[in-house]
Each structure stands twice: as structure tokens, then as C-alpha cells.
Amino acid sequence: MKGSENYQDLRKKINLFFDNELEHCDCESLLTRVSSDPRCQNIFNKEKSFRDYIKSNIKRPSVSTSLLSNIKNSIKIEDSI
Amino acid sequence: MALSKKKQMQIFNEELFPHMESLKTFAFHLTYNDEDAEDLVQETYLKAHKFIERYIAGTNAKAWLFKILKNAYINEYRKKSKRPSKVDFEEIVNFHNSDDPSKSAYFDLRESLFKDMMGDEVTIAINSMPIDFRTVVLLCDIEGFTYEEISKIIDVPIGTVRSRLFRSRNMLKDKLKAYAEKMGYKDFRGLKRGEHGEEE
């Protein structure tokens, strides 16, 4: 039970770390733990890989060449009314 | 004092237009199609123009634009497209709120086999999530907004952002795992030797 609670806390802390929402001192203690605890390091690396994977594989459709000019034209029309 | 047309265009060129690609990505994952996404981005900029007096130059233009886009989507596009807007949170919470290590375990993305999973699996997985869960992942993991910014963009408390993100990521991991299994990848880690039928 205690192990499960620790695991949850650790995962939450790692999530906060990657979201840049962890306090500076907590970041330092987490990184210290990551470097000394293989289990923690494993969870940390998995989460990092997951984030990197999502970010690098999501589809980012390009903006059509006409979109900017269409918006600018629409703004000009609105301004002229 | 009202902004001059010249100042307005300066704000658009220097602060608002540079976010067009990010807005397009967000819009694409809300609408599921390229043409609707461009319409939504255009609508966003036209609304920004309409309410430009409310924007303070030099502040958080990106968050402001994303909030406009999200509202435009909810108020207009979603009505037109008649997509279901309600999420049965209880059902999702019951299934995904568990942080049981065995449930939240997922394929190790460091494994080389994942490099072969070329395709749109991430996009498919994200797009198959309910809108409220998809939104927080896009805003946080793709666009890098802080919890506070997301809270303001989607009008929910920071605690809700945090818990929704946690559940969304678990959901995403489950979906990617299911996808990998469907593609024939098996995850034998955690099993004792021989349990998966391999030769000893």
C-alpha cells in the first residue's frame, strides 16, 4: 500500500516536473533521486520519452499560403465599413 | 484612447500573426479537418480584430488567441457541426483515475520497435479522446502553456486542469498501447520468462 502511494506521488511529481510546474527545490530533489534511484530513473525516462514521442509525432498541418492574405483582406473590409 | 489602424496592424504583425501555425494545429485537432481548421483560425483573427481594444500590447498574445479560438469553436463551429459536446466524466474518471502501476503501465517508447510505428497513431489517439481531455493535452504537451494559462483559456480551476491532464495522458497511453498491440507489437516486459510462450 505504501509502495503504491509512493509510486503515485512520484509519478505526479514527475508529471509536474515535465510540465514546468514543480518548485525549484523540488526539481533539485527529484533530479537527485532520479540519478540515484534506478526505479525512479526508469519512470522518469519513460515519461520523458512519452512526452517527446507525442510532441514529435503529432500532425501539424501547414497553413495555406492564402490564409494570411485572406485574413488581412477581411480585416481591411471590416475597417472600411 | 482607441488604437490607430497603424498600431492595430503593428500588433497583428508582431504579436498575433506569428501564432498562426500553432492555432492551425489546435484548430485542426478540434475540427478534424483542414478546411474547417483554416476557417476557425480566420474566425479567430477576425474576432481578435473586433476586440483588439481589449488586448494589451506586449502581454500574452498566444493565450489570448487560443482562448478566442476555443470560444469560437464552442459557440459557433460545434453548433454547426452538431458534434456531441457532453462528456460522461464519471465513466471516464472511473476508468482512468486509477494510478495502479499495472494499469498505467504502457509501452516503453524508448524501445526501438516504436521507431517503426510510423503513421498517424498519435494524431488518431489524440483525436479519439473526448474534447475536454484532448484540449488539455494539446494546450500543455503540444503548445507548452502553463496550468494557469490553460485554466484561463478553458475556464476551469487549476486543480481541474491538473487532474484532467493526468487522466488524459493515461488515456493516451492506453490508446497508444492498444494501437501498438493491434499492429502486432507485444509487450512482454514484466512477464516471467516462458509466460508468453517464448522458448526458454
Distance between the termini of chain B: 80 Å
Give the CA-based shape of chain A: elongated
**Largest interface, by Cβ-Cβ below 8 angstroms: which chains and how many residues each?**
A-B, 34 and 44 residues
Q: How large a portion of the residues of chain A is in β-strands, by DSSP E?
A: under 5%
- H/E element string of chain A? HHHH
How many E strands of chain B?
0
Main β sheet profile of chain A: none
- The chain-level structural class of chain A is mainly alpha
Explain this structure.
The complex is a heterodimer of chains A (81) and B (200). Chain A is mostly helical. Chain A contains four helices and no strands. Chain B is mainly α. Chain B has helices spanning 5-16, 20-31, 34-50, 61-81, 89-96, 101-104, 121-127, 131-142, 147-154, 158-182. The longest helix of chain B has 25 residues, at 158-182. Chain B is elongated. The N and C termini of chain B lie far apart (80 Å). Chain A binds chain B through residues 4, 7-8, 11-12, 15, 19-21, 45-46, 49-55, 57-64, 67-68, 70-71, 74-75, 78-79, and chain B through 5, 12, 17, 20-21, 24-25, 28-29, 34, 37-38, 41-42, 45-46, 49-50, 99-101, 104, 106, 108-110, 114, 120-123, 126, 137, 140-142, 146-147, 162, 165-166, 169, 172-173.
Summary, kept brief:
Chain A is mainly α. Chain A is built from four helices and no strands.
